[in-house]
Amino acid sequence: EPEVTQTPSHQVTQMGQEVILRCVPISNHLYFYWYRQILGQKVEFLVSFYNNEISEKSEIFDDQFSVERPDGSNFTLKIRSTKLEDSAMYFCASSPEGVNSPLHFGNGTRLTVT
Amino acid sequence: KQEVTQIPAALSVPEGENLVLNCSFTDSAIYNLQWFRQDPGKGLTSLLLIQSSQREQTSGRLNASLDKSSGRSTLYIAASQPGDSATYLCAVRDSNYQLIWGAGTKLIIKP
User: Fold this and answer.
1) A99 contact residues in B (CB cutoff 8 A)
2) pLDDT digit string (tens) for A60-105?
3) Cα separation of A33 and A104, whole Å?
4) Size of interface A-B (CB pairs under 8 A)
5) Which of A10, A34, A99, B90 is least surrounded by CB atoms within 10 angstroms?
6) Per-residue pLDDT tens digits for B7-54
7) How many H helices and E strands in chain B?
8) Which residues from B are below 8 Å from A91, CB to CB?
9) In contact, A19 and A82? CB cutoff 8 Å
10) Are strands B86-94 and B99-101 parallel, antiparallel or unpaired?
11) CB nearest to A45's CB, from B44, B46, B98
């Protein structure tokens, strides 16, 4: 069964550094998402992406965050200047259609900012 | 503002028992509700998606119900197995198309 793949599985970075989290969504899916889960807290929506542009974003997704689909397969989340509070598990997800289709998640990237 | 609550936060039952996990939400204006499973260090696996017009969905030993008017959903697991041990999350798609998550129920099935 096709899967969403995320790399790396764990990223350690120093405060103020830029990080890029990578995702390869399922190939025939059209909608892409990033979520995060701070340890011990609920999953939080960051951003959705469709037709090569952001369709929705949350208050968390400020100017420090950006997303890109640089080619036909990768979907990346960039954090320009990481803060300690950015430490979390970041999940990429994709779906074949819009809001009425189930989300398929990757295994996540654990980001640790020191 | 939509809020999603899952009770209990943790549940431990002997293998073979049938069990029910609960999810409640404050705003009945939803598009759908989805149940997920999360294993430690892993991603989220979609189990069942119930559209707002549906009352229930079934997949194998899992049955999810939705009562939109009362803001409740249940996930029924029949004949539980140790492999069912995981955290179960429910999430509602609200009127702004955003997915709002519960905190999850951590389920332990004792052999």
Assistant:
1) 31-32, 93, 97
2) 999 999 999 988 789 999 999 999 999 999 999 999 988 888 899 9
3) 10
4) 52
5) A10
6) 999 999 999 999 999 999 999 999 999 999 999 878 899 999 999 999
7) 0, 11
8) 43-44
9) yes
10) antiparallel
11) B98
